[in-house]
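User: Quick sanity check before I run a bigger batch. Here is a single chain. Can you write out its predicted 3D structure?
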Amino acid sequence: MFRRVEFQAAAVALVVVGVLLGLGWFGVTGSESDRLSAHLGVLPADVVQERYGADSDEARAYGEMPEYPNAYLVTVTMRDRASGERVEEARVTATVSRLGLTGATKQLLPAELAGSRTYGNYFRMREPGIYNVDVRVERPGVSGNDLVSLEYHRPTDPQ
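Assistant: Done. Predicted structure follows.
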C-alpha cells in the first residue's frame, strides 16, 4: 500500500514539473561548477544566415554553416569563479542531447565577438523540447577538467 502511494506521489510531481516546463517557467541560461560559471547562448542557424549571410565572418566564426535543417548555433562564455576573469584559453567540448537521450559531442571553437572570447559550434536540434548541454572545459595550468551542465528549452516552431 505504501509503495503505491509513493508511486502516485512521484507521478503527480512529474506531471506538475511537466506543466511548469511546458509553460516555460524553468529556463537555465547560466550554471556553475566548483571553479567556473558559464552562460549559454543558442540561436537557430537560419537566423545567423539571414542576419549575416552564410559566407560572412560571423556565420563562419564557429565553423562551416551547416546545410541540414534544424541546426542551432550553441555558444558558451565562461568565467573563473575565484578570479572573476573570463576563460580565454581552453579546450571546450559540448554534448547536446534531448532530455534523457544520447546526443552529439563536438569541440566548441573559440571566437572573438564583441571583444569577448566565446566558444561555439553548430548542433542539430530536431524537435522542440528540453536539451541538456554538458560542457567540458580543459584549461592550461589548471588541474582536472570542469563540467558544467546547462539546459536549453527549444520552443515550438512558429506556424
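The chain has a mean pLDDT of 79.

User: Great, the batch can go ahead then.
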